[in-house]
């Protein structure tokens, strides 16, 4: 319930919902305050168009601090003692071609890189992700199935109670600390890594960032000025990450004030 409530609240601040909500307010105002109503509708349309430009999404992504992999700098003799923690990123629910819940695109990107790290280090894998929408499989269970069946990589631990990054870190530490493991290679998207690393370190881990989908330099072309759904999705993701960091900062400040 808490997960769904937090998602609903965050939706109010994310495009395109926030812009559409502004347009609805504008429609409501049209009769009594037509100039204000028309202005709000125009702002809403311009905001959606602006955020749908690949050029906008490109520069918005640059506002996020990105962590590049520190894995290459990690001493070889420590790699065998370090767990690989792969964070979930959503399911493709009731996939008809697979006959069950399976991983969505973002989760597959993380799992693929986690499998590569295992082959290079031999480190044991923990997959983390719960069941926020009451699916048949948890994200952790689905990740394990894909890793073992398709990538032929073993998974030692499945953390399937968490629905947030905070819970990912808390429950993962509970499992791994019992095994005497507090060093991890943390696998998530590059844009999510700064927040995830901070949360996992505060939970007690020594974290070696192992991000995937690193930002790349792009040559700006005319196609960057053509609106697209993909660009709007990227813009929305940047808003989501900044909201997440703001919430994390507020939560940290609130906790500190009680100490």
Question: What is the CATH-assigned architecture of the largest domain?
Answer: 3-Layer(aba) Sandwich
Number of strands: 7
CATH third-level topology of the largest domain: Rossmann fold
Quick one: overall form?
elongated
* Main sheet summary: 5 strands, parallel
The proportion of strand residues reads 5-15%
What percent of residues adopt helix (DSSP H or I)?
Answer: 40-55%
Question: Taking all residues together, what is the mean pLDDT?
Answer: 86
Task: Output the strand order for the largest sheet.
Answer: 5-4-1-6-7
Integer tally of domains: 2
Radius of gyration, CA atoms, in whole angstroms: 21 Å
Total of helices: 10
Q: Please state the structural category.
A: alpha/beta
Low-confidence spans: pLDDT under 50, at least 5 residues? none
The string of secondary-structure elements, in order, is: HHHHHEEEHEHEHEHEH
Distance between the termini: 28 Å
Just give the CATH class of the largest domain.
Answer: Alpha Beta
**The CATH superfamily title of the largest domain:** HUPs
Account of the protein in words:
With 259 residues, the protein is an alpha/beta fold. It has 2 domains: 95 residues, no CATH class; 139 residues, Rossmann fold (3-Layer(aba) Sandwich). It contains 10 helices and 7 strands. It has a 5-stranded parallel β-sheet with strand order 5-4-1-6-7, sandwiched between helices. The chain has a two-stranded antiparallel sheet with strand order 2-3. Helix 9 links the parallel strand 6 and strand 7. Helix 2 packs antiparallel against helix 3. The longest helix is centred in the C-terminal third of the chain and has 29 residues. It starts with a helix and ends with a helix.
């Amino acid at each position: 319930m808490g997960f769904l409530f937090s998602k609903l609240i965050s939706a109010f601040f994310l495009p395109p919902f926030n812009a559409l909500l502004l347009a609805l307010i504008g429609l409501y105002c049209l009769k009594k305050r037509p100039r204000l109503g028309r202005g709000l509708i125009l702002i809403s349309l311009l905001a959606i168009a602006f955020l749908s430009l690949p050029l906008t999404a490109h520069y918005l992504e640059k506002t996020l601090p990105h962590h590049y992999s520190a894995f290459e700098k990690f001493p070889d003799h420590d790699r065998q003692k370090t767990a690989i923690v792969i964070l979930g990123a959503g399911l493709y629910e009731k996939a008809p071609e697979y006959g069950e819940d399976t991983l969505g695109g973002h989760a597959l990107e993380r799992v693929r890189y986690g499998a590569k790290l295992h082959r290079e280090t031999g480190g044991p894998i923990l997959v983390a992700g719960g069941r926020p929408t009451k699916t048949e499989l948890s994200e952790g269970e689905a990740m394990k199935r894909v890793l073992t069946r398709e990538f032929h990589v073993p998974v030692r631990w499945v953390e399937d109670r968490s629905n947030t990054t905070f819970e990912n870190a808390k429950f993962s530490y509970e499992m791994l600390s019992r095994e005497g493991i507090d060093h991890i290679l943390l696998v998530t998207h590059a844009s999510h890594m700064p927040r995830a690393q901070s949360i996992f370190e505060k939970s007690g881990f020594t974290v070696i960032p192992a991000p995937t989908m690193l930002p790349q330099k792009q040559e700006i072309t005319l196609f960057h000025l053509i609106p697209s759904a993909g660009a709007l999705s990227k813009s929305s993701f940047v808003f989501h990450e900044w909201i997440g960091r703001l919430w994390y900062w507020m939560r940290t400040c609130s906790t500190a004030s009680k100490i």
